[in-house]
Write a structure and sequence with these properties.
The protein is mainly alpha-helical. The chain has one domain (3-124). 62% of the residues lie in helices and 0% in strands. The chain contains 9 helices and no strands. The protein has helices at 3-9, 13-17, 27-33, 38-45, 55-58, 61-81, 84-93, 104-109, 113-124. Helix 6 crosses helix 7 (84-93) and helix 6 (61-81) runs parallel beside helix 9 (113-124). The protein is globular, with a radius of gyration of 14 Å. The termini are far apart.
Length: 129
């Protein structure tokens, strides 16, 4: 894992807790950690169902990036949501007024994880939705 990625992830303990020694997101651990099947996890991250069942596809940059984005967002809200399970529920179901009522899950699936992270950073410093 590159030094820049390590530094970027220092404040994302949930992401780091699901990484293997090679710096990849461990799919089985994430699915087990949230009580999901690999198929459910794929759907939640906006990936094709079979992607997480094939080792080669589960380790691609696109797949790993999407899972990392999802975990980064969940990690940012876990403290005030009451834990990672509640943060996952928020991620999947809470409409965000600043995004026309779309959920963080829908936004990540559309490639807008950066906008969600920026929104959460804004809210963390006392900004308004």
């Amino acid at each position: 894992m590159g030094q820049a990625l390590k530094i970027a992830l220092q404040n994302e303990p949930l992401v780091l807790s699901y990484m293997d020694r090679a710096g990849k997101i461990a799919i089985e651990q994430v699915a087990d950690g949230f009580g999901m099947s690999k198929g459910q996890l794929a759907e939640t991250a906006g990936l094709a169902r079979e992607t997480l069942y094939r080792v080669a596809r589960s380790r691609t940059a696109k797949t790993q990036g999407r899972l990392r984005e999802m975990l980064e967002i969940i990690s940012r809200v876990a403290d005030w949501a009451g834990g990672k399970e509640q943060a996952m529920a928020w991620y999947r179901a809470q409409p965000l007024p600043a995004f026309g009522g779309r959920t963080a899950e829908a936004l990540v699936k559309d490639g807008k994880a950066g906008a969600v992270r920026d929104y959460l950073d804004h809210m963390a410093v006392g900004g308004f939705a």
